[in-house]
Amino acid sequence: VITNIGLDHTAFLGETLAKIATEKAGIIKPGIPVIIGERQTETTPIFYAQAMRLQSQLHFAEDIAISYPQPEIPLKGNYQRKNIQTVQAAIEILKERGFNLSTDTVLKGLQKTVQNTGLIGRWQILSEHPVIICDTAHNAAGLRYVMDQLQQTHHRKLHIVWGMVSDKERSKIWPLLPGNAHYYFCCPDIPRGLSAQMLCEEASLYQLYGEVYLSVNAALEAARIAAHPDDVIFVGGSTFVVAEVI
User: Fold this and answer.
1) How many domains does the structure of the chain reveal?
2) Which structural domain, as residue segments, surrounds residue 109?
3) Taking a C-beta distance cutoff of 8 angstroms, is the pair 84, 72 a contact?
4) Of the candidates 114, 231, 230, which has an alpha carbon nearest to the alpha carbon of residue 161?
């Protein structure tokens, strides 16, 4: 299975989608089916070429009919729809190859995603009144979905606790962040953490304004104090920021 590809971890995988896809295509094995989570103009020809070379069946998740009802899953981020679609496609291919996976087993497994994997911090609601949401999305591809969902979430005012690490392409992320929010800039407690002051200064170039705090928890506490019960507080920008609040 190869999930959707974004321009993340470019230091390790390549500077373009095509180069990253070439690295990802390295997992394709001779004669073994491969599921691609998302059709992308830049990456599709690369996957086709590698699959053809290795005589592997290539499938796109969106093309595979699912033979059971859509489950209700505990991961609520809108972007999880593609992830679930990809998982379901892989299950269908396994069933075609003789694996005995009953509908009941599949649905129970999907419904217990968090329990079975320990995956947290993905559109996780930490509290109500005000609603506090955290999400570990940290690249443009993931944040685009998260910010769309955040704007669709009912709120009186939006507060964003924001911290990042130094190796992300911030120039592609800043334009995705809402200009109608108040920001609480912070630095995750790791060596790669980016200075909150630098974040604040960069953000102002994109008309995103707020204050600087010495820690993630200090920023969150300031947002809690400032927020009305009908407001929404979002915590994000880095997995390491989210890890400090959950």
Assistant:
1) 2
2) 10-117
3) no
4) 231
Same domain, yes or no: 64 and 174: no
- For residues 105 and 133, state if they share a domain: no
178 three-class SS: coil
Shared domain for 17 and 107, answered yes or no, is: yes
Instruction: Kindly list the distances between the CA atom of residue 147 and the CA atoms of 132, 156, 219, in Å, as whole numbers in the listed order.
Output: 14, 16, 20
Domain boundary at 117, 152, 179, which?
Answer: 117
Higher pLDDT pick, 227 / 15 = 227
In 3D, which of 195, 193, 209 has the Cα closest to residue 243? 193
Cis peptide upstream of residue 45 (ω within 30 degrees of 0): no
Strands (E), 186-226: 210-212
Q: Which residues contact 53 (CB under 8 A, 6 or more apart)?
A: none
CATH number, position 52: 3.40.1190.10
pLDDT digit string (tens) for 132-172? 999 999 888 889 989 999 999 999 999 999 999 998 889 99
Question: Between the CA atoms of 195, 149, 143 and 224, what dihedral angle is there, to the nearest 10 degrees?
Answer: 10
